Amino acid sequence: MSGNFLSLLESSLTPLVADGAMGTLLHARGIDFDRCFDELNLTQPAVVADVHREYIEAGAQIVLTNTFGANRYKLAKHGLEQRLAEINRAGVELARRAVAASFREVLIAGDIGPLGVRIAPFGRVQPEQARAAFAEQAAALVEAGVDLIVVETISDLYEIREAIAAARLVGASVPVVATVTFTRDDRTLLGDSPEKTARMLSEAGADVIGANCSGGPAQLLRLLKQMRLTLPEAKLWVKPNAGWPEQVGGRIMYPADADYFGDYALAFCEAGARIIGGCCGTTPQHIAAMRQALDANPDGCRMQVLQAAETPEAAESTESELPSRLAQKLAEGKFVISVEMDPPRGLSTHKLIAGASLLAEAGADVINVADSPMARMRMSAWAVCDVVQRQVGVETTLHFPTRGRNLLRVQGDLLAAHALGLRNIFVVMGDPTSIGDYPEATDNYDLVPSGLIKLIKQGFNTGLDHSGTSIGQPTAFFVGAALNLAAQDREAEFKNLRRKARAGADFFLTQPIYDPAAARVFLEEYTSANGPLDRPVLIGILPLVSARHATFLHHEVPGVFIPEDVRRRMEAAGDSAARVGVELAVQLIEAVKAWGQGVYLMPQFNRYDLIAEIVEAAR
Known about the structure:
Blueprint: H1 5-11, E1 16-17, H2 23-28, H3 40-43, H4 45-58, E2 62-64, H5 72-76, H6 84-102, E3 107-112, H7 127-143, E4 148-154, H8 157-170, E5 176-180, H9 194-203, E6 208-213, H10 217-230, E7 236-240, E8 246-248, E9 251-253, H11 258-270, E10 273-276, H12 284-295, H13 312-318, H14 325-331, E11 336-341, H15 350-362, E12 366-369, H16 381-391, E13 395-401, H17 407-419, E14 424-428, H18 449-458, E15 478-483, H19 490-503, E16 507-512, H20 516-530, E17 537-541, H21 547-556, H22 564-573, H23 577-592, E18 598-601, H24 608-618
């Protein structure tokens, strides 16, 4: 395409539109993720060219070459490092042919991704080695005639600095775009803020800076604003994923649809973006939606005036954020289904993973992991949460008892949970050790549940520990608390509820109920005396499996009341009691949908098959 990329940015009233995901569309065409996608430039060029064609037809003005992993380190894993120059040149040529066939003016961006190795001081690859590897790939792309270089999806500022330097070294006249990917915390994997990232990318010599991949449009809009606040004159590039990926039926799915991206196109423009596009999970439909949104406003958009009441670092912590998918779903008013699982008593996690997979496939939104229930020795709950989130792909809620933890242990465990990617915390007192495997163990604690909620919400989530000392960056915990809707002493329960709400609890999980009318009366009485409870309440549902089970719960478990007619029905069910228990649970869920924000299902005796039936019926 004739014309200079940077001058086009200056003259265009609306952002330029870049393409979307390459890997997502290649995989949809039957290419396995274990394959080297870059090699397809040589072995299946028509497939790659077809992806470029679809994005150009959708309205993309910039297409990225299929060379994201075409560096010596990544190609070596497939025995292809000797064909590096050939693969990169072929990637540019395929893009050029697709552009020529379209008879449109489209820029070709040479795509450079991370090396796939750690750079010193956090890895063994020295900076000069990294720079040489980046220069080798950049040289091939520049020689093949790209209009610009895009260095993307790097989370290590040491690494991207070398990539920018290499691109400048081999193509002094070729514009360089440098974009970083962030975690859910709005930080890079090494903990760098968007403000620091923006300054470093600019100082390193990038012509255009920005963010890509990471989460969905909402997160990248937030990051974009923070970068622009730091560098008001910077040219900004943004390419979000189609939301955070979720595993559904063994497939990786992205929740954000094309219309959602179209809605964000003008928001990105107003926040200062000069180039917008899509990353993982996005398709030509996403790009077309953004193109249409911009075309409907040919005179451009009114750029927002961003003001920082405090320092950039402080502004980051006050930016509105939904820290977890559970928080997002509740904020959107969706009816949420949460299911509790107990950690294993030994080392094996096979049954745990199988159960969690069954529940996720049935439609559970989140898995709650209990911590040493009934004070019995079990695997650490936060290790179980980590295993479930990594291997099953479903979000978890960590039960966090105050029992047996002093202030040092509480705060250390919170930092560990956050480092593992856990964001939902359910704060409880915990079962007394006197009823468990080790009755002689101590029950000492420094914080009651409301105190721990306050520590998390008013301390850790603002970047401070209990003593007021900085922990470096704020956590993003979404905190739940316990609620008993069948409490005998209602005034005491109302008092506890007020205390937890004032401390900052984000949501409540209730004890199991069997009389939905009485539970609703409890909340109505609380509202009458204290005003509306403006926090989501997930109603506890514990499916009955036998008449004996119902009798035990009613007579021996504090806070559980089972109406006589329910107990009689379980008695009359005989051998079909478990089936009747499922029917009762489904009826309870239907009854609470009018006033509850979700349900909290508690399986008995690891009957996850019954719970899966209930979840499917509730959906």
